[in-house]
Amino acid sequence: MTDKPVLEPTAEHPITVAPTGKHVTVRINGEVVADTDNALTLQESTYPAVQYIPMRDVVASKLTSSDTTTYCPFKGDASYYNVTTSAGDIVEDAIWTYERPYPAVGDIAGHVAFYPDKADITVA
């Protein structure tokens, strides 16, 4: 059994989580699947900022759990969701979540994020 590395943010690899402070709408194939004024922006090092949406502001009826999992040494174990549109299109692994994130990013618990190549994310 291999222990997973756990890393803390540093000056060389900073991670911040802060309220977005703007309205965030997420559409997949033109359909609204998330709409919130309570998003969090996670900024990790030099990567693009990611909007984390409270799960309560996502249309849960469009989601099905995926078997996909990944691991981030800064955030923890991620699980994924597929999104099914009203037309019956299934967009696989469009959403990820850290159900039990590491303490440094604990604020993202109960939130999900969308892949920008699978969803249109508007911050306004």
What does the secondary structure layout of this molecule look like, with pairings?
Elements: E1 15-19, E2 24-28, E3 31-36, E4 40-44, E5 50-54, E6 63-72, E7 76-84, E8 90-97, E9 111-114, E10 120-123
Could you characterize what this model shows?
The protein is an all-beta fold. The protein has a single domain, classed as Domain of unknown function (DUF427) (Metal Binding Protein, Guanine Nucleotide Exchange Factor, Chain A, Beta Complex). 0% of the residues lie in helices and 49% in strands. It has no helices and ten strands. It has strands at residues 15-19, 24-28, 31-36, 40-44, 50-54, 63-72, 76-84, 90-97, 111-114, 120-123. The protein has a seven-stranded antiparallel β-sheet, with no helix packed on it. A three-stranded antiparallel β-sheet has the order 3-2-10, with no helix packed on it. The radius of gyration is 15 Å and the shape is globular. The mean pLDDT is 97.
